[in-house]
Amino acid sequence: MIEIKELSKVYRMGKEKVVALNKVSFNIEDGEFVAIVGPSGSGKSTLMHLVGGLDSPTKGSITVDGKDISKLKDKDMAKYRNEKIGFVFQAFNLENTQTALENVMMPLIFSGVSKKERKERALKALELVGLKDKVKHKPTEMSGGQRQRVSIARAIVNNPQIVFADEPTGNLDSKTGENIMNLFQELNGKGYTIIMVTHNPVEAQKAKRMVKIMDGVIIDDVVNERGVENAI
C-alpha cells in the first residue's frame, strides 16, 4: 500500500545542511502494524511526517495506493490527510474547552456529512476505544490515558486507511501506556494499518514489524514474532 523509494530530507540551518533522512527505501503493506524505532534525532519523526503528508521530501517518492503523494498540490494533500490518514500525538492535541464528543467530531466538519452523522460516527469511535461513558467530559476532567483514547477516537473517526502514532505513550505512566498499546493492537486486528514512531523498545515489541532507523538511514527491518503472536 505504501512504497517509499530513495526518500531524503535535508534541512537548511543557516549555512549548514542537516540530513534528516538519507535515501530511505521500504514498503508497508495494508494491515501492517509497524514500529519505526530509533533514538532522538534519528529521523523517525521526519519519516512519519513525510508519509503523513505533513512535510515534503527533498528527494525520492512516497506512493500510496499507486499515487505519489510527494507531488500532490496543497488541496489534494489536504484531502489525502483528511480521508486516508489519522494522527495520534504524544501531547494529545485536544481542545480543552470542548467535550470528548466535540473533539472527535472535529475531523468530520469538512467531510460533507450531516451533523447528525458526525455525532453518530464520533459516538461509535468513542465506544470503540472504551469511552462511551465519557462523551460529555472535557479533557481537563479526564486522566492522561482517557485523553489519549479520545485522540485515538478522533484519529479513526474518518475510518482512515493509516493511523500514525507519534510517541503515543510518551506522556503516560507504564501501566496506562501498556493499555494504549493493547488498544492499538486491537485496532490493527480490526484492519487498521498502524505506523508508530517510538524510541521505546518495549512498546515496539507490540508491533508486528520493527524498522530501526539511525542517523537518517534504516539499519534493520525485522518481523517481530512477539508482536505477531500477541495479535493472533
UniProtKB/TrEMBL annotation:
GO molecular function: ATP binding; ATP hydrolysis activity; transmembrane transporter activity
Coiled coil: none
Alphabetic keyword roster: ATP-binding, Nucleotide-binding, Transport
Domain of life: Bacteria
Domain ABC transporter: 2-232
SMART domains per UniProt: AAA
PANTHER family: ABC TRANSPORTER ABCH.1, IMPORT ATP-BINDING PROTEIN
Protein name from the UniProt record: ABC transporter ATP-binding protein
Organism: Clostridium manihotivorum
The organism's taxonomic lineage, starting at the top: Bacteria, Bacillati, Bacillota, Clostridia, Eubacteriales
